Structures are given as structure tokens and as C-alpha cells.
User: Which sequence fits this backbone?
């Protein structure tokens, strides 16, 4: 197991290198010019050119790439072209809201979706099953921002239960922290709940056909034990896999959710950076997201051993 | 069926409105910034854009200039009559030949680090500003010397008279001549400063700055306001709240809801779709933000056919319907726009319609087609580069595509984002090789009240704004304005400039438009101005 973890960790190095090369090259060939954005709309072409030169954007690709890689190896993601702040500091400023949103969404989604899927499989073909599947289709179909606006309308403006927007750091207390996250987490979690519920239902349906379930039934095991202990554990591997894959969905959805609820997280940082062509920030954030994704996949792989003793690394 | 974002704004706005009554009874929800202080001494403001950097000389975006106004003071300041008034300056003397300007600073000026403002700071600040600002560059070109005489006096000696000196030092166009401590002002004008110390009525709380989310300004107790009442950038800049928090909200519907729910106090630029809904909320005031408005721009590339021929440019002007552009932008709100047969801001002293007949009356597509045919145009693709992420340029681009087709042009519509337009418009290569024929922009009316900061109306070829128009007649008229000794002479010069620029088809103005600002009724002192001014604003 330990050797496997080491091997997987080492394997992240070429993955990250490819991501780095890809991100840098893509940004290099992408149209757009941060110098023009900095100079403002009234600036003359000569001003823009001088700013570009001062930022080093007029230097050859290989020189810029080499310098960037050299800094990355030292753990330095560079400095934002616009804010003049280190990218690591900007990420640090923004990581808590995004992480909070993702964790709350994840907890909410798993807590709701897994029982939904299990019950839908158990009551397969019934109105409960259809209702769950209908909800799943809705979750897939309705965009996050629509759900966001509707939630803000009912629960923030009509009922005044939650704030419309913003984020309160955890250090100011659990209550204020969670009150800012409930609506965004529900909005963001819709697709995720739908995905997990569908996979849970499908895998549970398969497992419930197995002989050992029939045996458990014949031996008089109670329904809940049979569903949530015997069946769910054996259905867990694909469910956990989907939860892991869904992290990418959460990262993508966070961009929209953070805009709708004015949460100062990494999603908004990324969008702002892309619109302004703030290359160091874009590169830093994408590298970080890639690393997180690789890490999540590693954790998912390791978790398989917990659910299926036959799996060994 | 398709769901349009604009419709969703309305749903969101309507929902916010429906809850307006409840919102007024309920305590404000805890939102961003609220935890930091929901008291009446904290004013929460939603700016037009993100404050991504904070060097008002290095970066000339309006949002940086607006934030800069809180932190840095200027030697002069434009008042609501568009006249420069003394601000940091106590008095000035001009020699009889107009070549030597001697300025004296008023007493008690202090930076936020509690060091006194001296003439050395002013000299360094002006030297940095003059590299980047068009008027500053003109002064620099005729500068003999700029020196500190003593702690409170400095002298600017010129080789030629420059009658617009007070305007240059007090104008509101970016970059403004903000005064910084000498150690900061010595930074290369093309490099960003790293310390934000000013002498204005508010100090910047750097440790609370989260670019893209929040910027905080704290009242500076050491600021000594002038005795006169405040008038835009001039007079007594009295901070009436302890703290101003800028809360960045990229989504207009969220900003509308937050304003209605009392989570923010003042919104700089509500979109016109939401204005009717906000107007009906009894807790919210809504009014024109900037009486000087904006001028829409249809910018043609003078380097490449067919727009290197004045007849093609005039063909566009004679077919262009400003009403179409304005209605695409502001909808049915007739009070938000007007036709503009001019390049200058309506309602200001130098406004003129000389030469503007081409933009008036019935639009004549047949005549335009005929004129275009005379240029030898034979249906080659016309590259129209349109930024889709800016509501203004997106609306203009759609109208232009239709207009160009009507006059027989083969439109190559390039839908892109503003960042790409920003770089592509700088390319002089032919449109078929990555260049362009047309792009849209808009100019703040405050920049178009006179030729001083009107970069887009320069016609000096390679040195001109994108499109690189070259017209000696336009430039000559511009120079006449700079040399004009009085208002009548200025008016004559501007009328001549407008006429020449129209005949030359320098660019096509697509109309004059205004926008709103909205604030809660417990906030008072909000003024109509080109910049949101925070002095004199109170919150109960």
C-alpha cells in the first residue's frame, strides 16, 4: 500500500508537468493582452507597448516558460500582473470560501443523494423511484444560476432566513459561516445530488439482484440492515468513484455559484483572471486545481480497499 | 424555448422587489462585509468593476481612478461647473509671459503616514504623472524646469505658455495628477507602486484588500478639508462615515437583491433592465449617476480599405442611425439617451454641432451604397470585432452588423471578449491577417468636454488612438483650442475641430447615453457626477 502511494505521488509529477506545459502554451497562444487592460481604454498604442515591455510580455516563449518553470519548482507561483500580489497569497485569500462551499456541498449531496438512490432502488418502479429519478433529471437540467436566483428569492428575500450574498469566515463563528453557505451549497449541489442518486440507484439495483442479498432476506435480516449494510457497502465502489469525479463538477459549478452569491472564492478569482489575462494567476489556479484533482483521485483509489477487501495495491 | 439571462435578471429583480417590504422590516441579512461593521458609520458600496490594482498612474481604468479619489488629493479639482478650483494649492502666480507658474500649497496637508506633504512630493508626483497623461506629456514637452522652491512652494517653468495648466492639474480624466509621497512617486510610471499612501480624506486599508471581492477605506482623521462646500473634486471633502467598503458583485441581479435587502447601501451602476423594478422599491433612491454620460463609438481602421477612403467612412456616417444604437442599449428609456451630431458632450460649455448634419435626419442607405461603390468596394469581408462580454459593445455590434449589411457590406462578425478586442485593436496588420476594420467602444462624457483628454479624437496618425486617423486640419483645430485665450476662442476652435472631424469621418459617434445609480434612502449626500464622490455622504 505504502509503495503504491509513493508510486502514485511520483506519478503526479509528470501529470503536473504536462498540465503546466499545456496551460502555459494555451495562454501564450490565446488572444488577449493584459497590458491593454491595464492601460485602460484611453491609452495610446505606445503606452500599451511600454507596459507590455515592462511586464516582460514581449520576450520569447521559451524564456518566459523557462523562468516560470524555474519558479514553480521553487514553489513560487509568481506575482499577479494586476494586483502585484503573490499568486500564492491571492489563492490563500480565496481558498477558504471555495473549500467551505465544496465541503458543505459534498456533505449535503452525499447525505441526501445516497439515501435517495438506495430508496429509489429498493422501491424500484414505484412512484418514489419515479419521483427520485424525476428530481435527478431536474437536477441535471436546471442551470446552477437559475436555482441560485430562485433560492435567493424564496429563502433570502421572501423569508429572510439567509443572506443574499457574501461569505463570512469560519473564525467568526459557525452560525454566520453556515448561513452564508446554505443557499449556494444547495444551488451547487443540485447536479451533484442528481448524479450520485442515479449512480447509487443503478448500482444498488444490480447489487439487490445478487444471491447474497436474497440469502440475507431469507435469513430474515431487517430491511435497513440489508440495504445500508449489506447492499450499500458492496455498491460503494462506483458511488465513491462518481463522488470523486464529481469534484471536477463542483470546481466548475463553483465559478457560477460564487458569482451568483458574490462569494469571494477561487472560482471568481479564476474568471476575473481569465477576463483580464492575468497569466500568473490563471496558471497558478489551474495548477492548484489539477493537483487537488489528482489528490482526490488518489484518495478515491485508496478508499476502494475499505469497501472491497479483494482490492489490494 | 430559451432562457435569456436578461429575463432572469428581471425575475431576480422582481423577486427582490416583491420582497422589498419584508426586507425593510427584517434585519439585514449577514452578508459580505456586514460582519465587519453593520453600523451607520460604515458605507457599503458596489463599484462598477473590480479594483484589481491600485496605482492610478500605472493603470488608468475608471475604477482605479474612482478609488484613487478617496485616497489621493489633487492640486486642483474640477467643480460641477467643469471649472478647475484650487484644492491642495493655496495660491498660484503666473508670470506675465505665461511661462512661469509658481504654486503654493495650503497649510496642514498631511499624508496618511502623518508626514507633511511637501513640494518635493508634488514635484515627484507631477513628474511621474506627466509621463503617462496626454496633457502632462504636452507640458513635459515644453518644460524648462519643475522644481521645489521651499517646503510649500514649487515652480514650473515652460518654454511656451500653457493656458490650460489648472485644468491639467485638476481634471478628472485618468490619469489624474494625484499627489503621492516622493519615495512612492519616484517609481517608474510603467511599473506599479507597492505602497498606497495618499493625503486624501480616506486611507486605503491594504490588509483588508481582497482584489476581486473587497476594498476598504478608512476615514483619515488628519485630513484638513477646505472651507468651501464640496463640489465634485473641489471644496471641503468631509468624510461623514468612518469606513467605506467596496463590495465587488459581478452579478447585477445579486447586487439588486443585496441593495433591496439592505446588505449594501449604494450601487454605482445598476443595469437598465433592473432600474424600473428598483424604482418601485420605497427604500431605494435611483437617479442619473453621471450627468456627463457617455458617447458611443463606432471606430474604423483608417489604415485599410475601404475605410482608408473618407468616402467609405462618410457612407457609414450617413447611414448610421443613432436611435437604433441607443434603443438597443437602453431599451425604451427615452430619458437615458439622445442623438449626438457631435463628438463632444452635450450640455457642456464647448458643445457644438458644427459639421454634424451628416448624422441628422433620415438615414439614406441608397446614397451610402452609392458613395461606398465609388470607393471601389466589391464585397470584401469587413471584420467587425465585437466584445460580447460588455453589454454596451455587444448591443452596438449587433446594430452595426445590420447597418453594414444594409449598405451592402459583407460582414465578418468576430464575436469575442473585451480582453481580445483590447489586443486585436492594437494590430495594424490587414484584417485578413489578424487585424480589424471596426470595433466598438464608448467614451466617458467627462473625457469629451474638451479636446484636452479626448484621446479618441486625436488625428495624428501613428500617435493617434486605435484606427490611427491622420488629419492635419483636425490637429490644427485642436492646437488652436490649447492656445485659446478665452471661452469664445475655445468655442470657435472646438467647432472647427468638430466640423473637420465629421467631414473626415474620424469615427462615428453612436449616440449619447446616461446610466443610473441607486442607493438606500438612509444614505444621503449622493451627488450626480462622473465619479462617485464619498465626501459629504452620510448614512443614518
Assistant:
Amino acid at each position: 500500500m505504502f509503495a503504491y502511494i509513493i508510486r502514485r505521488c511520483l506519478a503526479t509529477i509528470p501529470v503536473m508537468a504536462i498540465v503546466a506545459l499545456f496551460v502555459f502554451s494555451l495562454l501564450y497562444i490565446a488572444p488577449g493582452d493584459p497590458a491593454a487592460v491595464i492601460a485602460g481604454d484611453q491609452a495610446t498604442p505606445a503606452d500599451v507597448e511600454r507596459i507590455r515591455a515592462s511586464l516582460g510580455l514581449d520576450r520569447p516563449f521559451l524564456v518566459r516558460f523557462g523562468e516560470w518553470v524555474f519558479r514553480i519548482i521553487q514553489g513560487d507561483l509568481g506575482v499577479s500582473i494586476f494586483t502585484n500580489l503573490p499568486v500564492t497569497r491571492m489563492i490563500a485569500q480565496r481558498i477558504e470560501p471555495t473549500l467551505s462551499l465544496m465541503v458543505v456541498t459534498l456533505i449535503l449531496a452525499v447525505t441526501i443523494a445516497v439515501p435517495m438512490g438506495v430508496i429509489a432502488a429498493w422501491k424500484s418502479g414505484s412512484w418514489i423511484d419515479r419521483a427520485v429519478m424525476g428530481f435527478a433529471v431536474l437536477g441535471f437540467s436546471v442551470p446552477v444560476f437559475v436555482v441560485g436566483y430562485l433560492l435567493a428569492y424564496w429563502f433570502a428575500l421572501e423569508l429572510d432566513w439567509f443572506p443574499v450574498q457574501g461569505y463570512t469566515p469560519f473564525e467568526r463563528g459557525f452560525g454566520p459561516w453556515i448561513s452564508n453557505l446554505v443557499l449556494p451549497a444547495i444551488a451547487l449541489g443540485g447536479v451533484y445530488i442528481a448524479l450520485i442518486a442515479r449512480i447509487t440507484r443503478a448500482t444498488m439495483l444490480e447489487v439487490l439482484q445478487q444471491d447474497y442479498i436474497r440469502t440475507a432476506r431469507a435469513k430474515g435480516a431487517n430491511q435497513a440492515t440489508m440495504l445500508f449494510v449489506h447492499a450499500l457497502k458492496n455498491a460503494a465502489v462506483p458511488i465513491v468513484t462518481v463522488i470523486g469525479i464529481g469534484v471536477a463538477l463542483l470546481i466548475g459549478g463553483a465559478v457560477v455559484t460564487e458569482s451568483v452569491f458574490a462569494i469571494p472564492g477561487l472560482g471568481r478569482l479564476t474568471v476575473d483572471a481569465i477576463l483580464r489575462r492575468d497569466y500568473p494567476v490563471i496558471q497558478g489556479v489551474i495548477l492548484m486545481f489539477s493537483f487537488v484533482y489528482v489528490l482526490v483521485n488518489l484518495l478515491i483509489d485508496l478508499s476502494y480497499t475499505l469497501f472491497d477487501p479483494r482490492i489490494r495495491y | 424555448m430559451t432562457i435569456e439571462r436578461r429575463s432572469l435578471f428581471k425575475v431576480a429583480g422582481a423577486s427582490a422587489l416583491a420582497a422589498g417590504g419584508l426586507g425593510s422590516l427584517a434585519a439585514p441579512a449577514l452578508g459580505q462585509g456586514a460582519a465587519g461593521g453593520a453600523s451607520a458609520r460604515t458605507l457599503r458600496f458596489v463599484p462598477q468593476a473590480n479594483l484589481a490594482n491600485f496605482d492610478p498612474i500605472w493603470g488608468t481604468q475608471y475604477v482605479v481612478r474612482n478609488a484613487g479619489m478617496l485616497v489621493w488629493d489633487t492640486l486642483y479639482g474640477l467643480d460641477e461647473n467643469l471649472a478647475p478650483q484650487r484644492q491642495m494649492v493655496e495660491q498660484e502666480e503666473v508670470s506675465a509671459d505665461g511661462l512661469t507658474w509658481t504654486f503654493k500649497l495650503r497649510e496642514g496637508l498631511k499624508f496618511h503616514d502623518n508626514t507633511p506633504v511637501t513640494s518635493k512630493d508634488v514635484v515627484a508626483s507631477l513628474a511621474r504623472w506627466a509621463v503617462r497623461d496626454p496633457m502632462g506629456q504636452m507640458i513635459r514637452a515644453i518644460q524648462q524646469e519643475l522644481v521645489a522652491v521651499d517646503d510649500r512652494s514649487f515652480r514650473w517653468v515652460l518654454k511656451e505658455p500653457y493656458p490650460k495648466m489648472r485644468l491639467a492639474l485638476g481634471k478628472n480624466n485618468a490619469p489624474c495628477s494625484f499627489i503621492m509621497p516622493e519615495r512612492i512617486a519616484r517609481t517608474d510610471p510603467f511599473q506599479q507602486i507597492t505602497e498606497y499612501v495618499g493625503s486624501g480624506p480616506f486611507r486605503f486599508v491594504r490588509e483588508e484588500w481582497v482584489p476581486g471581492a473587497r476594498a476598504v477605506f478608512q476615514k483619515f482623521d488628519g485630513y484638513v478639508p477646505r472651507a468651501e462646500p464640496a463640489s465634485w473634486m473641489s471644496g471641503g471633502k468631509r468624510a461623514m462615515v468612518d469606513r467605506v467598503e467596496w463590495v465587488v458583485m459581478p452579478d447585477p441581479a445579486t447586487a439588486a437583491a443585496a441593495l433591496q435587502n439592505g446588505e449594501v447601501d449604494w450601487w454605482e451602476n445598476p443595469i437598465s433592465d433592473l432600474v424600473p423594478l428598483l424604482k418601485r422599491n420605497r427604500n431605494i433612491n435611483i437617479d442619473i449617476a453621471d450627468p456627463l454620460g457617455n458617447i458611443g463609438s463606432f471606430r474604423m481602421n483608417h489604415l485599410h480599405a475601404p475605410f482608408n477612403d473618407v468616402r467609405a467612412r462618410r457612407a457609414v456616417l450617413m447611414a448610421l442611425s443613432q436611435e437604433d444604437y441607443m434603443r438597443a442599449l437602453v431599451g425604451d428609456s427615452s430619458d437615458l439617451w439622445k442623438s449626438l451630431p457631435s463628438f463632444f458632450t452635450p450640455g457642456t460649455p464647448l458643445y457644438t454641432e458644427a459639421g454634424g448634419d451628416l448624422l441628422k435626419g433620415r438615414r439614406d442607405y441608397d446614397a451610402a451604397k452609392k458613395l461606398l461603390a465609388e470607393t471601389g468596394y466589391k464585397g470584401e469581408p469587413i471584420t467587425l470585432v465585437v466584445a460580447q462580454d460588455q453589454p454596451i459593445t455587444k448591443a452596438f455590434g449587433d446594430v452595426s452588423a445590420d447597418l453594414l449589411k444594409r449598405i451592402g457590406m459583407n460582414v465578418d462578425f468576430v464575436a469575442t471578449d473585451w480582453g481580445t478586442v483590447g489586443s486585436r485593436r492594437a494590430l495594424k496588420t490587414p484584417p485578413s491577417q489578424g487585424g480589424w476594420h471596426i470595433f466598438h467602444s464608448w467614451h466617458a462624457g467627462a473625457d469629451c468636454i474638451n479636446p484636452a483628454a479626448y484621446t479618441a479624437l486625436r488625428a495624428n496618425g501613428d500617435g493617434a488612438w486605435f484606427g490611427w486617423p491622420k488629419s492635419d486640419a483636425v490637429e490644427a483645430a485642436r492646437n488652436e483650442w490649447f492656445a485659446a485665450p478665452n471661452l469664445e476662442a475655445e468655442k470657435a476652435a472646438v467647432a472647427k475641430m468638430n466640423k473637420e472631424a465629421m467631414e473626415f469621418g474620424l469615427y462615428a459617434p453612436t449616440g449619447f447615453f446616461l446610466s443610473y445609480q441607486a442607493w438606500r434612502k438612509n444614505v444621503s449626500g449622493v451627488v450626480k457626477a462622473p465619479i462617485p464622490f464619498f465626501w459629504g455622504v452620510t448614512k443614518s
About this structure: Chain A touches chain B through 66 residues (CB under 8 Å).
